[in-house]
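Hi team,

As requested, here is the filled-out complex form for the magnesium ion run. I kept the field names the same as last time so the parser does not choke. Let me know if anything looks off before we queue the next batch.

— J.
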Amino acid sequence: MSSHSYLEALAKRYLNEALINEKAGNYIDAAKLYRKAAEVLKLIVAHRPDDPLSPTYRELAESYEKKARELEENSKVKVPSSSVEDEDSKLIEDLIVKEKPDVCFEDIIGLEEAKQAIMDSIVYPTKRPDLFPLGWPRGILLYGPPGCGKTLLGAAVAHEVDGVFIYVSAANIMSKWLGEAEKKVSAMFRYARSISNERKRPVIVFIDECDDILGVYEQEIGGEARVRNQFLKEMDGLLDKGRRHFVYVIAATNKPWKLDIGFLRRFQRRIYVPPPNKEARKALFEHYTKGLKLSEDVDFGTLAEKTEGYSASDIRDVVMEAHLITVRELFQRGEIYGQPRPITMGDFLEVIKRRKPSISPQLLRLYEEWHSRFGT
Ligand SMILES: Nc1ncnc2c1ncn2[C@@H]1O[C@H](COP(=O)(O)OP(=O)(O)O)[C@@H](O)[C@H]1O
Ligand SMILES: [Mg+2]
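And here is what came back:
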């Protein structure tokens, strides 16, 4: 390949990447790539100023630079013009996650199906909407026993997707003031739509323990039904306009049976987050003992076998408690500046003996039954 056709191919590649990033709303990256494409074109022109294509390349290079400047300007505008958005963002300020959570998909052990489903329905569509002409699901429900990674998955989405992350829980949205919670719900969706439409950035609304807010309970203090209805109305707004919004609602629950069918209907993807199987439990022991000193006799396979019914967070606790045994000994011996002895198999087994698994077979059956009826 001659050096020029190589450079031409390179410019084309940068341009292509720039377009993809621009479409996905990654304006800063897109601007950088436009500049790179321009740089390469200018290099070609400098090498052969008399070539008949040179004026065209020069013009193209200038137009890419202009584009890059526009994109940079655009992304600088943090607070957009409309005052509606201003007001809304004040009302829901405490819901918007300002710092990216420090969790990525690799930190989540097992749950391969759940992770893949999230990739397919959120991560890929935000990165390459052009590959999803039929659209993508807007509502995703994660359900399963406590302590198995639902909240963690939500945090990892925030980490993987370059967008705005809104975290909603009963604690931050329900209010003792009548009507306040509904107002917050509608402000939140208005804000999400405007970020998505005007700034082309994905918005992820994560509703943790959604049964607290949206479940149907016999004893209701008042206002719950109105919040629920407001929510459903907003979800419909996202679903039927036929517009390619980048607003996703992810809801997580330990009690999916508390949700009513109207709510479920709006969540096209329903993903079971199961307790860890033997293989995942083994990997969890390996994961959580990283950085700890272990005695030679520790056998993760056996530990995995003995922890049927333990949730991922149970296993993390077992490791912490076993470690604590060795630390406690150190303090009891008065060697507060020494190093604890390695953790032995005996330490782990002692902790496991004392600690009951948090997921009973009956509870598991409830989830599995629900899963076979309502899962997707
Ligand atoms: N799949 C997993 N891999 C690694 N750690 C996990 C996993 N699931 C849960 N944990 C640990 O347990 C804690 C609680 O998990 P969480 O995601 O809040 O559970 P859930 O929301 O399903 O009740 C997490 O902060 C993490 O330390
Ligand atoms: Mg949780």
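Two things worth flagging: Residues 54-76 form the longest helix (23 residues). Residues 150-151, 208, 252 surround magnesium ion (ligand 2) (CB under 6 Å).

Thanks,
J.
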